[in-house]
Every structure is written in C-alpha cells, then in structure tokens.
Backbone:
C-alpha cells in the first residue's frame, strides 16, 4: 500500500518551542489552519482511500479540510499520537528538549529499553504505533491512506521501520508542519521511503521560520 504520513498543522506550542504532548492538546494557529487548508490542493492528483488521525485535537483539525474535500470520514486511531514527554511536558528549555530527543531517537536506533523521564519506553511506543498502522494496512492494502500524526512520532517510527535508509536518516531531517512523507509497503514485508518533504504542503509561504518547533527540528540543530 501507499502510506502518506502527514504532520499536523502549526500549534501554539510549536511556535513557543514547548513539549506539548498530552491529550487533547491544542488546536492550530491561524497559520496552522491555512496549512491544513492547503492539503487538499497539494494532494489533488492523488486518489485517497482513507484518512486517519490521532487522539489529539490538532490532527483532527488538520485532516478536516481534506476529509471534507474527499467526502471521507477521518478515523481516529489509538496508537499514532505523539511520543509523550512524561515529566518533561510543557518544558521549553534546551536541555529538556534535547533529553526528549535523545530518548525518542534512541528508540529509533534500536535501544527500546530507554525510558522517557516519567514516561514509557520504546517497546510501548512501537507496539501502539505498529498496531495502528497495521489497522490502516488491513483496510487499504492495495490503496493509498493518509495518516495525520506528529513530528517526533513519525520520525522515530520511520527510523525503526523503514528498510531503505539508515535509522539516522529521519533524525537528521526536519519535518515541518504539514510536511508529507510517502512510504510504500506493508507491516509484513516492510516499508520503503519514497519521498521526504520537509516543507509545508503549501510551500514556503506557509512556513514559519521563526517558530522554535521542538518536535520537528533536526537532531543536528
């Protein structure tokens, strides 16, 4: 199947550089709403068979324009929400952000026993994300599905599950709000990365270079 992983639109926490991962989470900024509105236009040449969102509000709002345009009801999945920040929640200092990244991307590199401070380990993350992606694959095994998820969760899952690039690939790259990552494959045979679009689907006019955006930044930053 063809899987389009799309990061949600910009939130106030993205602008402030805060680790905001708890449910239900914030909605979108005005720019984030414009980013979401650009998704149907950017995907106008694609046949979309299913649209899926996480338990967090920002993915529902991001998917709404595409769902309305395609007349498809977005389905909430229980396992594709953001990697919880645990005791680092709502922090924006550099050390907390770095610790969050070091922990999450250790999972992507294969060290699943590392525990997020006050949170879970990598086994729990991959189990719940894998289970939801397996549901998507079972429903649309020969089609194209859109999954609207979150910056850190998308990149860590790709690091651990994509077979044609090294695990460090996604950690070294940013994913901007409404950035699209295209994969092909299935849970049994594995996933191949087809394209990585780190910019918003609407182009540079919908990018916010001033936003601190802790869950979308490269580990090189």
Residues:
């Amino acid at each position: 199947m063809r899987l389009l992983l799309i990061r949600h639109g910009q939130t106030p926490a993205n602008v402030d550089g805060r680790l905001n991962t708890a449910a239900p989470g914030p909605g979108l900024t005005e720019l984030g709403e414009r980013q979401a509105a650009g998704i149907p236009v950017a995907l106008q040449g694609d046949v979309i068979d299913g649209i899926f969102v996480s338990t967090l509000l920002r993915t529902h709002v991001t998917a709404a324009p595409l769902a309305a345009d395609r007349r498809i009801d977005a389905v909430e999945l229980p396992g594709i929400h953001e990697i919880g920040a645990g005791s680092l929640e709502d922090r924006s200092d550099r050390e907390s952000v770095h610790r969050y990244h070091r922990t999450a991307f250790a999972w992507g590199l294969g060290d699943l026993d590392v525990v997020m401070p006050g949170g879970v380990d990598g086994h729990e993350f991959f189990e719940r994300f894998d289970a939801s992606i397996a549901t998507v694959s079972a429903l649309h095994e020969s089609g194209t599905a859109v999954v609207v998820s979150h910056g850190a969760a998308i990149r860590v899952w790709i690091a651990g599950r994509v077979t044609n690039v090294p695990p460090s690939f996604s950690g070294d790259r940013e994913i901007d709000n409404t950035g699209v990552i295209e994969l092909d494959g299935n849970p049994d045979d594995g996933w191949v990365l087809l394209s990585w679009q780190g910019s918003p689907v609407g182009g540079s006019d919908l990018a916010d270079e001033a936003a601190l955006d802790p869950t979308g930044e490269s580990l090189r930053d």
The chain has a mean pLDDT of 92. The chain is about 35% helix and 15% strand. Residues 122-139 form the longest helix (18 residues). The radius of gyration is 16 Å.
